[in-house]
Amino acid sequence: MIELRRAGAEEFTAELDAVIDTYTAAMRPPVEQLSGRQSIMRNHATFPDFACLFAETPGGQIVGFGYGFHGAPGQWWHDVVRRGLAERAGAGVAAAWFENALEIAEIHVHPGYQGKGIGRRLVRGLCEGRAERTAVLSTHDQPTAARHLYRRLGFVDLMGMFVFPGGYERYAIVGSTLPLLPPD
């Protein structure tokens, strides 16, 4: 049985090697991106109201993780995405989604443990009891299991075909009001 365990910023950064191992197995990024990703994750742990969940085996092996924080001006993702949404849909729409948002930065499950409801539990656990009005995140703009999961949880597309500055991959920016839809 996979258990979820809450971790604070200090414990999260102490477990970054295990986190990066799970991230690498799930996402298969180019090796040269891993040190930068680790640095980004370490920085995220300093953001306001940081929350992390680890999905662990009975032996304590991390096989999934998710984390988020309160989005605020001055955070790169927050500023880039809010500006992009304002350009496409108007400043009022962007404000409605980003003025008081939980930004879910990462949700990853090791491939050997996918399809067992762990990702759903991670998203629900991160959103549960949050004071923010909305939750927002980015995901590959493809018909993936992650996109299907987010839709089932009540997330709607805010922007599609979004390319981050300096990038080339297309992302969907999705959001949901909180609390999330009840389980089906």
From TrEMBL:
<keyword id="KW-0808">Transferase</keyword>
<protein>
    <submittedName>
        <fullName>GNAT family N-acetyltransferase</fullName>
    </submittedName>
</protein>
<dbReference type="InterPro" id="IPR016181">
    <property type="entry name" value="Acyl_CoA_acyltransferase"/>
</dbReference>
<feature type="domain" description="N-acetyltransferase">
    <location>
        <begin position="2"/>
        <end position="184"/>
    </location>
</feature>
<dbReference type="InterPro" id="IPR000182">
    <property type="entry name" value="GNAT_dom"/>
</dbReference>
<dbReference type="GO" id="GO:0016747">
    <property type="term" value="F:acyltransferase activity, transferring groups other than amino-acyl groups"/>
</dbReference>
<dbReference type="Pfam" id="PF13508">
    <property type="entry name" value="Acetyltransf_7"/>
</dbReference>
